[in-house]
Amino acid sequence: MRRDLRRDNEDAVTAAVATVLLFAIVLSIISGMMAMIVPTMAELQGAVDRETMEGQFTDLAQETVRLSESGLPGDRSEMMIQPHTGDISWNLRRGGTWYTVTLVEDQTLRLNGMNDLDGVIEHRYPNGDLTSMCLTDLRAHIDAQYRHISPPINGTMLVTPVASLQTSLERVIVNDGENSHSIQTGTVIEIDSSIQSPAIAIASAPMRAIVTQGEGGMTTFAPDSPEPTGMGRSWTVPATAGDVTILLYSTETFTAEVRAGDNTQSLDSTSQSTIEPDGSQGRITVVETAITLTESTAIEVTTSSLAQMIVKQGVSTSGSTALLDKTGSVSGTTFLFPPSNHELLIHNSGLLSTSVEINGLYHSIGARDSARITMTNDMGGWIVAGSPVQVHLVADGSESSRSASLDYLYSTSTGRTSASTWSNIVGGSPHGSELTIQRLGHDVNVQHLDNIAPTPESTTSINESSPRMTIQWMSTEGGRIEISAERPFSQGKSPVRAYISHGDSGLLDLRTMGDERCVEIDDRISGWTQNILPWADVSFLSDGGVIDAWITGEHPIGLLVTMRGPHADNPHAAVAMGWSIPLPRMDYIFSSSVSGLEIGWRGGFVGTNHPEYVATTIEVPPSREGPGPRIAVTVPVVIPDMDLDTGTSSHKTTLTLNSRCQLTSVSAQEVRRGWDGPYGASIASQDSIDLDSSTDWLTYPGRLDLLNDYVGWVQPTPTSTESIYHAGSGPVSFNLQMALIDYDAMVING
Length: 750
Prior knowledge:
The protein is built from four helices and 53 strands. By secondary structure, it is mainly beta. Strands 39-6-41-42-3-50-52-51 form an eight-stranded antiparallel beta sheet. 47% of the residues are buried.
């Protein structure tokens, strides 16, 4: 029988097609299953990544908090970090945290853009008047440099490390522009200064500095950690060989311990009765001790109560120093002055005459005039003026002149060492006087006018190549000086610092270059107010450039903001304060079914945007509350080595506490905390999670004045990136510290 080959071929083709179709169907089913399974597997992988690193980051956060709160400088902790499939890196540009307190009832201070690395910051103080905002660089970096530059005088700058149990154990490196010195606490370095070449000291740790010229003089010496009122409990005084007199005064009885080398004195204060500003009977307490040194030595002084200090150094019988009013400013209406055989020189720069009461006796000072007043029986007491004045303690001279002195020219617009405008009455000297204006941060054009010489109005540019200008006069009695400093091309005002010297002798408590750069505030605005930061904009620099700017002080790494304004008849009282601290962040970047997921750790906080890009807080920043209306916060600032790239490698981490510093301890009317970046609202929400159990909050949402059944952090609105500490009515005792922690890592496998 003959086979039909054509039919056989058709059957074979049909079978082949069927096989292909069946295989395609199987592949389709498998592809569909894979399309369903792969994302699930990726999600499971992401969950494993999060679970693995969440625990490690939480352990890191808790260990940094433990070190920062209870460790001593030099304490360390070691941990192993084992990434799963993601990559570990550090980011400097994620901002940080900030805290604010108000010192006056029914006021609020809010800050914005403090850690953006640019040249603009914002504040909001809606319910009160302000006269100035003073900014101080916190130097929140292990490698930060502390710079002192003397005014251009023929003299000597004395520098010594600040004495504290909470500072680094390492020796301090001080560079004087020519040589580097390795010193420890108690050692004093003397650096020569001249008119052509002012003394400079660049140190690796906080320092105290004094400038002395000729036969010395006297100066009001600030505490190592001053209160908002300018008073304190500890001082580190660099002193040269010879005679040194320490004068401490207060309104409370106190015991002072004075340590100079191996010699220690414990002295109890003596009291004098006086009339308080309100007319009641009061007292002024004093400790005065004279020390003769055979070599340059740091004198360490501590007191049991808040006090002010005046230092006299050298053999000069002349000298003068500005006194602080009870709010810590030099321009004010209420001053405490110590018992002394010196005289009081009071300047009234106002357009109207004013009355001055001293221990119950009244004196009149004309408009834009000065008065010299002899103390009765060398007694101390209170000065109460009808309008703002400046008070100087002077050792010699007549009327508004003195033989020799060295001091800051404190601006009447801020009451501080720096400002952008001055309208001051100044004294003179038979030996000549000199005013020096020093650049701070920005290039400026300085306009100057006075009636001393008199001289026509002049404008001088000071910049990086010419960072200061001087004005000299020979008038014995002095006169009125007007100064204003503005950035070129109408970019607005910018602060400068002014020094004034009379004759060829004097003594000066020299501030660091990053201390108190004050900006005047003229308008009352209820909304956000933009301010130009008196430092360079570094937002466009690379990470390496930002770190260099932080270290050198070209841009602040952390800021203390002091808002000053009228309060209790004083024009420049500290009414609110704020602290901003940039916090480098360690990020673990991983993927699930989507990319760009992260877990971040910094400042005791741990957060993640897994699984749906929603910011979630895992570990809240540290704070310790109670007992009673009190809260204490230590901010751990972890400083990594940015050159070390661990990537996906397992590595051994070493955390070392470098130092801890006290930022403030005040009685505050309101305390706020904020965080930059996408996790701010999540942190504020998690902070106040216990608020859900408050009946008062459920009944009256947003009404802190009616919240009586809850104590703790409160997020005022669901989207707010800041929280308010609520402790019922009345002030809150607030303590803030900052701990610098060194982060080192050694890769175990590549």
